Amino acid sequence: MPIYEFDCQSCGNEFDKLVRTMSAVSSVTCPSCESSHIKKKMSLFSSRAGNHSSASATNAAASCSPGGL
């Protein structure tokens, strides 16, 4: 079950919500003003392996210089 990030277009509140199905995304409302005028934000993918978590792009992968530094 993914956690999505949202922006409320009415009051500017930023919040996240656990959404069980894709069809449930359309029924999400702002917890501050209860508006349904919200926009789903683009989120970075994150994975967990063992006791460490990492984002989808590492510093080396995001670097423009040879060797990743």
Keywords:
69 residues, mainly beta, Rubrerythrin, domain 2, 3-stranded antiparallel beta sheet, two-stranded antiparallel ribbon, 5 strands, 6% helix, 32% strand, extended
Characterization of this structure:
The mean pLDDT is 78. A three-stranded antiparallel sheet has the order 2-1-3, with no helix packed on it. Strands 4-5 form a two-stranded antiparallel ribbon. It has one helix and five strands, in the order βββββα. The protein has a domain at 1-42: Rubrerythrin, domain 2 (Single Sheet), CATH 2.20.28. The protein has one helix at 59-62, and strands at 3-8, 14-18, 38-40, 46-49, 52-55. Strand 4 (46-49) and strand 5 form a beta hairpin. The longest helix is centred in the C-terminal third of the chain and has 4 residues, at 59-62.
* Cα separation of the termini: 36 Å
Quick one: biggest sheet? 3 strands, antiparallel
H/E element order: EEEEEH
Q: Which value, in Å, is the CA radius of gyration?
A: 16 Å
Task: State the shape.
Answer: extended
Helix content: under 10%
Backbone structural class: mainly beta
Mean pLDDT: 78
Q: Give the number of DSSP strands.
A: 5
Unreliable segments (pLDDT under 50, ≥5 consecutive)? none
CATH architecture of the domain at 1-42: Single Sheet
Strand content: 25-35%
At the first level of CATH, what is the class of the domain at 1-42? Mainly Beta
Q: How many helices in DSSP terms?
A: 1
Strand order of the largest sheet: 2-1-3
Fold-level CATH name of the domain at 1-42:
Rubrerythrin, domain 2
